[in-house]
Please model this.
Amino acid sequence: MKQHVSILLLAIFSASTSASIDSAFKRLNTKMSMCMALVGESQVETNDKWLISLDEDSIKLALLLLKDLAMHKCTEVEEKEYLYQLYLEYVTTNDIEPLNRWLNFKESGLINAHREITTKSFLEQVSRLSKTPEFSQPFDVLEVLQLLQKKT
Model:
């Protein structure tokens, strides 16, 4: 009898977790749409000496990383909830694949693909800039790149 109750509870919990994953994903998707809408609204005007002093490829990489960080900040709560729901699904079903797919999707290949540029100092400067008001919200990378090119 205990085994039947345990199986029933596990089935209920599993169904609940699946619904929670769907719900968390919908909230994340909605928040991402809201954050992407901010891209058109933001006006980034920067005179940061470090950023302006970089070569074009380094500026592009810095801006892409800054936009990624701003998007992450914008969706942080919803991403954490979705990740937590995926983890609960894994604990319940022992199926790691959905969790792995999400982690692989979130892994940025930018840093690994540009090891010659992404030195410790470079990443520290990007981190510093990500905390400034200009780069605290998602922005149009191309627009900012064009503004910076006019300054160099």
Q: What stands out?
A: The helical segments are 2-41, 49-53, 56-93, 97-106, 110-113, 120-130, 141-151. The chain has a mean pLDDT of 87. Residues 2-41 form the longest helix (40 residues).
